[in-house]
Structures are given as C-alpha cells and as structure tokens.
Amino acid sequence: QKEVEQNSGPLSVPEGAIASLNCTYSDRGSQSFFWYRQYSGKSPELIMFIYSNGDKEDGRFTAQLNKASQYVSLLIRDSQPSDSATYLCAFNTGKLIFGQGTTLQVKP
Amino acid sequence: NAGVMQNPRHLVRRRGQEARLRCSPMKGHSHVYWYRQLPEEGLKFMVYLQKENIIDESGMPKERFSAEFPKEGPSILRIQQVVRGDSAAYFCASSPQDDSTGELFFGEGSRLTVL
Fold first, then answer.
1. Which of A 78-107 lie inside 8 A of B, CB atoms?
2. B8-19: per-residue pLDDT in tens?
3. Are A64 and A77 in contact (CB under 8 A)?
4. What digits encode the pLDDT tens for the residues B58-85?
5. B25 touches chain A (CB under 8 A)
6. How far is Cα A18 from Cα B55, in angstroms, rounded to an integer?
C-alpha cells in the first residue's frame, strides 16, 4: 500500500470554479500535513500546512483534514489559469513523504 | 536572504561517469533533505542529513549513491557509475533546527541527464 495516495488527474475545471484535490495517507501517527504546488520544470512551493482536524483557510485556499478517515483535501475557490500546476500532498514522519501529485488544469 | 542553492542546475553525464550535485541550505538551516523526481512522478525521499551526520538514508539506493553534509561547505549527493535510469531531477530542501512545523524549503533542483 502506498503511503500517500493521490489521483494523478488531470483534473480540469473552468475558470472561476472550485477545484477539489484529495489525498489519503496510511500513517495514523502523522501529525502534520502539507500541500505543495509545483509548476512544470520548477521546484515545489508550500501552499498550506494543517495539523488539526477541520478546515484551515488562507485566501482562496482551504485545507481540510480528517484524521479518523486519514484524508486531507485542498479546495481552491475562484480557480484561475495561473493555478494550473501539479499539487503534491505530503505528511511528516520526521521527513516529508509526498504523493505522486494531481495535475490541475484551469481552462479560461 | 538567499534561498536553498543547488548547482549545477543541469548536468549531462555519460553512462559510467560520476555525478556530483551540491546544495547549500538557507541561512540558519541545519537540516538538509534530498529528493528525486522522475518524469511525471512525485518526489521520492532519498536522505536526511544534519551537519556531519546522516540521520535517515532509508530512501537511498544501496549502491552507487552517497551523500554528505560536512561541517563546512555544501551538502553533496554523489552518484557513481551513472546509468540511464538515474536521469531525473534531484531536489534539495532545508529546514531550521528548531522548526516543529516540518515545512521544507526547496531549491530549484539539479536535472541530471545520462546519455
């Protein structure tokens, strides 16, 4: 079983819509979870991290964590073409373990 | 305030040659991580180092790969006798010693092509 599972996509949404990205993880002991964005040919950059069950909002981004279900998601409201990238979720076990990433395409 | 610096950004090697990738962490950071990313795949953990110590090398291939982070100078990831399957982007990341969040700051990566 993979440690972090993400749908590779591509996930295609129209501009202005809500994009929903999902991630499941296997380590019940994990305490912190991260969403990174990676543009093609570039390095990953942190969007959000979350520790507690529930929602955490930052601008157009909302991270949701459900530890009982071992599930973390990222919602992007009012999606823009500039949001088109690969989104990587990760959890911390003393090092960050990444999923394979979901490619998001926002169409004008 | 410089970020994580990696060089070279691009490296071409022929099969059997050696590749050396260097990483200078952000100022004030003492933890260095190396990740490998194959085309169209996610980041795979390789090794976690602190100054003069390898903390976790569970992701390193058993042969040909080694890493160090000396007291002075950058961290180095060394690949001996490269093969075509080593072609990938190698990312270095760093974090501060007292950081409890687990956030990593990534360099721009070194892209290795093996001919």
1. 88, 90, 92, 94-101
2. 999 999 999 999
3. no
4. 999 999 999 999 999 999 999 999 999 9
5. no
6. 41
